[in-house]
Protein 1
Amino acid sequence: MRKVSVFNNVSIDGYYTDADNDYGFAHEGADDPELQKFTAANAKGENALVFGRLTYELMAAWWPSKDAARAMPEVAKGMNAAPKYVFSLTLSKADWANTTLLKSDPAKEIARLKKTAGPDLTILGSGSIVAQLAKAGLVDEVQLMVCPVVLGAGKSQFAGARARWTLARSRTFGNGRVFLAYELAA
Amino acid sequence: MRKVSVFNNVSIDGYYTDADNDYGFAHEGADDPELQKFTAANAKGENALVFGRLTYELMAAWWPSKDAARAMPEVAKGMNAAPKYVFSLTLSKADWANTTLLKSDPAKEIARLKKTAGPDLTILGSGSIVAQLAKAGLVDEVQLMVCPVVLGAGKSQFAGARARWTLARSRTFGNGRVFLAYELAA
């Protein structure tokens, strides 16, 4: 079975974007060497990536750009090369390299994909997809990087997905971020 | 200056109660000896307590009871003995021992109280009060005990209180809870 994990930067109050879909808070302090080393090791770049449309459009506009290649060459290379899936009923095509556009129900499609051969799946951003998959019990691990900021309002990635989880790992960074990884409770 | 701190159990998704004002999630695993030792040391019982009406009514119904005295004798004794403030425009009296009913604006009243002599102030629950005080820059420390549960919906204690904080301390517990303490960013 392919494993499904979520990675998101979140605020102290649990949001992965503010009320305007802005996740700029996640960039503050992101150039910290300790954090960058961890991120590079944590995101080995071998996974397939899963997005909802909003997150896909943000990422597809950034990672193939010359600015991204200059700013974060290794990460950009990995993001562009990775197999990607985007769920959208409104997009008619998905031009970012190695992207498959999916129009089926996310829970049904991921349940099917999990049983196929291939790399593990990582969801970035995409709170609506995370919530749908978590409600269906299809998320094996949630990785949160808690940033030292309160947003005061924003979007949650777990709407309606009430469940117990098991803390698997945690790590505190010198820049005040706290990494928390939870696995599906037995 | 008296220090104002907040202590709340929160879910992974940042809520201190679920959508029905229920905080039963915070009781699951709360009988863990490691956690109880920490809680007893952390809440030294010397602070004055601050509540909004909803939290006050829940606490006032529990801590003076015989059940509470049986279940948690030391904590009950401390809670009943502590000086307490409740903000409410609808209550006409507050009968729980050592409670002062306040009808003024929470931010103005706490700003005034901070300058008086007396014990430090701790807010429990009371998200609307926390948000108002945090927006006014009157909260010196936020202590969160992150419980390993997603609620999927609920009440936030930081509505509208966007701000950067500084991580001061953190601790992971064997039962999967994570304690995070933040101080007001300089």
Protein 2
Amino acid sequence: MTIKATNIIRHAGKVAPDERTAATGNRPCIVWLTGLSGCGKSTIAMSLEHQLVASGHPAYVLDGDNLRHGLNRDLGFSPEERAENIRRAGEVARLFADAGVIALCSFISPYAADRDAIRAMVEPGQFVEVFVDAPLNICEQRDPKGLYKKARAAIAEGRPLMLTGVDAPYEAPRHPEIHLHTASQSVEECVKSILAYLRRESRLVD
Amino acid sequence: MTIKATNIIRHAGKVAPDERTAATGNRPCIVWLTGLSGCGKSTIAMSLEHQLVASGHPAYVLDGDNLRHGLNRDLGFSPEERAENIRRAGEVARLFADAGVIALCSFISPYAADRDAIRAMVEPGQFVEVFVDAPLNICEQRDPKGLYKKARAAIAEGRPLMLTGVDAPYEAPRHPEIHLHTASQSVEECVKSILAYLRRESRLVD
């Protein structure tokens, strides 16, 4: 990514962060769920979204697959394009957080550097990294999108599919704010644990 | 823009549009302000944002300049890059609208085709095109960013700057939902007129 935009003046908004917090009951926040395909990221994100919205907190799921239907549909799956996919997701999450909407980001996001770059973009405390941890064999048994089956077949034919955890690396978070174990914890327990964290850290203030 | 993302499964969200409307008092909506540099787009957008948030309606300004600091900082000002700038802005606006936040988009967006492409992406009634109309000579007198001065100097030296309205075209909306004349209307009148439209068309429901 080359920075080409120059000669740009940033407009100061008229809405102060405190006014948004008063209106929404949230402080700016990006909940970033990372983990293998099939680990349960999207299921947890959507259940969390539903509970937040039902209790009056604006929240929205940004999802790898869904973004690729729109904003990121010009991107493929090369390492550079994966990095750009995550960069744009992070930038959109930052806009949501700034708008007072809790951004629930569900992305495999295998590279620590890409995740750390988003953390570095926002204020301390705004980036909540959630490691949705499940052993590869469990994810592969679940295989909700049939990706593991496809990857194994492709590898047997000598065509790498670059699936994270199979023939592409996953760099586990070393210091995530929240570490979930979905082989043993239910979706409800995971959601509860994230909500408790957000309240404890004053990201939710009512 | 080449579509490269394939093999993508869209997750259905768990939050129904009616639940979001109940929580926010808005229906999904993109207010798209288009017009020359200096016509008053950003000033109107920010005043509108402030009034909406103060009355409990989530709203957020997406601004050409501000997006270029983050999401679109890899884009320059060639015709293709301008088109991609507007495409991404439209995609982000669609995500905001889907999240229940009124997206207030302030972009020169000189090409009708680019604006129409965003209109075509969303449901009928969701895209509210606002033509922020002011004669070039008025915009040039205001010149809040000094762009006209810079463009005239560049042209005098034989270097085109591709500034909309000076040495690059502006295609005025033919059927905008709202047509504002900022040489004669105040910011307050313009904001009032947009709010009245949103209420009349049931984009604001409380």
